[in-house]
Write a structure and sequence with these properties.
- The chain is an alpha/beta fold.
- Among the domains are: 5-78, RuvA domain 2-like (Arc Repressor Mutant, subunit A, Orthogonal Bundle); 115-305, Tex N-terminal region-like (Orthogonal Bundle), CATH 1.10.3500.10; 320-441, YqgF/RNase H-like domain (Nucleotidyltransferase, domain 5, 2-Layer Sandwich); 635-721, Nucleic acid-binding proteins (OB fold (Dihydrolipoamide Acetyltransferase, E2P), Beta Barrel), CATH 2.40.50.
- 47% of the residues lie in helices and 11% in strands.
- It contains 30 helices and 15 strands.
- A 5-stranded mixed sheet has the order 6-5-4-7-8, with helices on both faces. Strands 11-12-13-15-14 form a 5-stranded mixed barrel. It has a 3-stranded antiparallel sheet with strand order 2-1-3.
- A hairpin with a 2-residue loop joins strand 11 (643-652) and strand 12.
- Helix 3 (35-41) packs across helix 5 and helix 8 packs across helix 11.
- The two termini are 24 Å apart.
Length: 752
């Protein structure tokens, strides 16, 4: 696709990078290169732009191209109407946003039959034109000239009413008037929500919004989405408008030029325009723009959470006994080998009587011994703490770790096509237990099989723009998968799908090739996979690992295109590539400047040396075991002031949810996250982080637990702050800059 120079200049200015960097990135993107590939293996071309910057260039380029497509469509429409003037064309070409473009097009847009259309058909446009000029004349006498039985204009007042309809439509279609009103709604508009009569009881979850108002401009994402949901569920009445008197005053200031009879007609038309057309139109717009802003924030929070969850510490390749707890239905038990393959499954009943408990104990001891189990994963749902207590009472070898695993989404996976394909002969309970065990071994590899919306780390994820949500979450999953790297001989089709340059079809072909021909022995063998051509190989190869390959570089993140460079380095030192990877003193002897070429610069060479030092290194943190407080299993066991360990399960704009082992997550409100002032919870905690909390309040009937992290050293890092208050403004939440989703949100903010 031909690059538009104006686009390149605009993006470079907005993102504070050079035009050359934008051009190189745009060219690579248009050639089919992925964000992870460009940021990792094309640093010389882009001037070392990172993933966030590359994604921002991609997204802005898409926006500008969409704007251009709409611009061309509008120009064609007006040209076909033979109404396109050089001045109008210049205005259309200069429009920088879709809203401005649509405002310009509005008078020329094919429309349904309106009151103004009917008035024109009655021949009243000349009267409207004369009134609009607002000169002094006998308005009633002039209007009487338009009385016509044939055109159904009965009297002067009806003629004036028709003329006002025409003038109101002119005002509504005036681009400057719309821009003024849009700004008023955005800057001075107020959200007002009220409970619908008779909905007080069933709408208790929206109680905070029964009598609520705050400025549209400052309303945080979670409150906008909550009010909109209350409206959708027909509990709340919601409006989004500025003061009506101020709106009318501004409109009149634009169109009313005097105080004569004609001006009075224009004033009446302005009032009608606002109440009948502009108010509705602008409220619709401001609701859409505030929803878009709320969506972006909610999606950013979700993306942050998902990234942290996907990059959770993996237990690694160990034989695991996974337990999906239940009381009456029993505990589903599966044994997985070090690669996650299902070896054995059975249901035990430790919670249905003494005899059954004894049988269950015997079964667990047998499975642990027979399969040499190294860890036991227990899902954190119903009966989890009771199952944990049961397992710990068995006095198993100290080497067997007993670990609680967040099972959110396991039931979704168990009923999915993916699970049916993997385990066609097993029922949903077995599949769910397998998911629990595998996500302990490798959260990333297992969670990519589940729709991210079902993992339980979002906020209003079903209310936001689903296309934008999917786009953002796909970005995060792809970023995580490629940052970690994928072992091509053990990866599932779902995991391979997210590897740069592959996708579902090639991922399936890789699995089929593997099944038919055995494990891949070299990266080059990937080229034998059906439809995996040179381009796909270039994009994917660096992110795929082959453990124990003949060429040790195949297990690293060094791209095959750079193998000759490494081989030359080894040759110059008189050693093997393996020696170079094993001995730091050899790598220190390399003068990188000797290997710089027209296409390979120091950034790539430095990456190569770093990778040789730790080939295929997993960027995720080392796994640490965690245990809840024994004896605290239900909400009724909690007391105010208790200090407990917990795991962060979800982060929202207003705080963090923490699992403390009582089947109900507690909320640490943003004001209790730290001894310091906190704006953004992500600056203080991460999903999966181990924290110490104090119980502030327990409301058993409403299933609400309030917690505090004040005094926890883990929460003592500096941060910003802010919170909302009833019927008032909230401090605007600052954007964090510590990860992919947050940085991308910041850059996107620059070109709104």
């Amino acid at each position: 696709m031909e690059l538009n120079v104006d686009h390149l200049i605009k993006i470079a200015t907005e993102l504070s990078i050079t035009i050359k960097q934008v051009e190189a990135t745009a060219t690579l993107l248009d050639e089919g290169a992925t964000v992870p590939f460009i940021s990792r293996y094309r640093k010389e071309a882009t001037g070392s732009l990172d993933e966030v910057q590359v994604a921002a260039v991609r997204d802005r380029l898409e926006q500008l191209r969409e704007l251009d497509k709409r611009r061309e469509s509008i120009l064609k429409s007006i040209r076909d109407q033979e109404k396109l003037t050089p001045e109008l064309e210049a205005r259309i070409m200069a429009a920088e946003t879709m809203a401005v473009l649509e405002d310009i097009y509005l008078p020329y847009k094919p429309k349904r039959r309106t009151r103004a259309t009917i008035a024109r058909e009655k021949g009243l446009e000349p009267l409207a034109q004369r009134l609009f000029e607002q000169e002094s004349f006998d308005v009633t006498a002039e209007a009487a000239n338009y009385i016509s039985e044939e055109k159904e204009v009965k009297d002067a007042e009806e003629a004036l009413a028709g003329a006002r309809d025409i003038m109101a439509e002119w005002m509504n279609e005036n681009a400057e008037a719309r821009a003024t009103m849009r700004q008023l709604f955005e800057k001075k508009g107020t959200f007002k929500s009220r409970v619908m009569m008779g909905k007080e009881e069933e709408g208790q979850k929206f109680k905070d919004y029964f009598e609520w108002e705050e400025p549209i401009e400052k309303a945080p994402s979670h409150r906008i989405l909550a009010m909109r949901r209350g409206e959708t569920e027909m509990v709340l009445l919601l409006s989004a408008q500025p003061d009506e008197e101020e709106a009318l005053e501004r409109l009149e200031r634009m169109f009313v030029k005097g105080n004569n009879a004609a001006a009075q007609q224009v004033k009446l038309a302005a009032k009608d325009c606002y109440k009948r057309m502009l108010k509705l139109s602008m409220e619709t717009e401001v609701r859409l723009t505030s929803k878009k802003r709320a969506d972006e924030e909610a999606i950013r929070v979700f993306a942050d959470n998902l990234r942290q969850l996907l990059l959770s510490s993996p237990l690694g390749q160990k034989t695991v006994l996974a337990l999906d707890p239940g009381f009456r239905t029993g505990v589903k038990s599966v044994v997985l080998d070090k690669q996650g393959k299902l070896l054995h499954n059975e249901t035990i009943y430790p919670h249905t009587g003494q005899h059954k408990e004894s049988e269950a104990a015997q079964a667990v001891r047998y499975m642990v011994t027979r399969f040499e189990v190294e860890a036991i994963a227990i899902g954190n749902g119903t009966a989890s703490r009771e199952t944990e207590a049961f397992v710990k009472s068995l006095k198993l070898p100290a080497s067997v770790q007993v670990l609680m695993v967040n099972e959110s989404g396991a039931s979704i996976y168990s009923a999915s096509d993916v699970a049916r394909e993997e385990f066609p002969d097993q029922d949903v309970t077995v599949r769910g237990a397998v998911s629990i065990g595998r996500r302990l071994m490798d959260p990333l590899a297992e969670l990519v099989k589940i729709d991210p919306k079902s993992i339980g780390v979002g906020q209003y994820q079903h209310d936001v723009d689903q296309t934008a949500l999917k786009h953002s979450l796909d970005d995060v999953v792809m970023s995580c998968v490629n940052a970690v790297g994928v072992e091509v001989n053990t990866a599932s089709k779902q995991l391979l799908t997210y590897v740069s340059g592959l996708g579902p079809s090639l991922a399936q072909n890789i699995v089929e090739y593997r099944n038919q021909n055995g494990p891949f022995k070299t990266r080059t063998e990937l080229k034998k996979v059906a439809r995996l051509g040179d381009k796909a190989f270039e994009q994917a190869a660096g992110f795929l690992r082959i453990r124990d390959a003949k060429n040790p570089l195949d297990a690293s993140a060094v791209h095959p295109e750079s193998y000759p460079i490494v081989e030359q380095m080894a040759k110059d030192l008189g050693v093997t590539v393996q020696d170079l990877m094993q001995k730091d003193e050899l790598r220190k002897q390399i003068n990188l400047k000797n290997y710089v070429t027209d296409t390979v610069g120091l950034p790539t060479l430095q990456d190569i040396i770093s990778e040789l030092a730790k080939p295929g290194r997993d960027p995720r943190q080392t796994f640490e075991a965690f245990s809840f407080t024994e004896g605290i299993n239900e909400m009724k066991d909690l007391r105010e002031g208790m200090k407990l360990p917990g795991l962060v399960t979800n982060i929202t704009a207003f705080g963090a949810f923490v699992d403390i082992g009582v089947h109900q997550d507690g909320l640490v409100h943003v004001s209790h996250l730290s001894d310091r002032f906190v704006t953004n919870p992500h600056d203080v905690v991460k999903v999966g982080q181990k924290v110490d909390v104090t119980v502030l309040e327990v409301d058993v009937p409403r299933k609400r637990i309030s917690l505090s992290m004040k005094g926890d050293p883990a929460a003592a890092r500096p941060s910003g702050g802010g919170g909302g208050k009833k019927a008032g403004a909230t401090k605007r939440e600052e954007e964090p800059a510590n990860d992919f989703a947050a940085k991308l949100a910041m850059l996107k903010g620059k070109f709104k």
